[in-house]
Amino acid sequence: EAQVTQNPRYLITVTGKKLTVTCSQNMNHEYMSWYRQDPGLGLRQIYYSMNVEVTDKGDVPEGYKVSRKEKRNFPLILESPSPNQTSLYFCASADRSSYNEQFFGPGTRLTVL
Amino acid sequence: QQQVKQSPQSLIVQKGGISIINCAYENTAFDYFPWYQQFPGKGPALLIAIRPDVSEKKEGRFTISFNKSAKQFSLHIMDSQPGDSATYFCAASTGNDMRFGAGTRLTVKP
Q1: Residue of A nearest to B34 (CA)
Q2: Which residues does A36 contact at the CB level (< 8 Å), separation at least 6?
């Protein structure tokens, strides 16, 4: 089954404790992206990657890091999480022939205390 | 600053009624306008999309109306069903730059 998977689905952590949210897709997509979803703000892009070893900032990259060492994986790293990073996070992927048709993962709900 | 403005924030419709969600954008470079549907606990999923060279696109009960001169587009859900209850996001994109609206929570009452 074609899908985007994220782990963990739920995470409660404390301020300053480094964490990684993993994202993996099995569709051989070149494009991958991370979004955060907040009430009243919709989906805002954090980082995206056009291909392996190619990453770029989205609208809200502060406090986040990403890497793209393999085509299928695109982890999101919070080196020192803060309470304002409490949010619902989505990973998405798309084929390079149609960046607009993005396939989303199930989401990771992060709470930073 | 939201590049795509979506309204209403929430919408309650009776079963069988028409649901209408509106979006407006500023950047005339946008050339693709998708709508995503999100059920609770799930990620958004592409529902229907339109390009600016057409004024309307229909897929089943879902229709996008597009007004290029007004820089507005809307989603119409005909014969709304309780199973349509979800959050709907409009978006606008150019290349790999996609901007989402704030979302509309639709509730269809039986």
Answers
A1: A100
A2: A43, A44, A46, A60, A87, A88, A89, A90
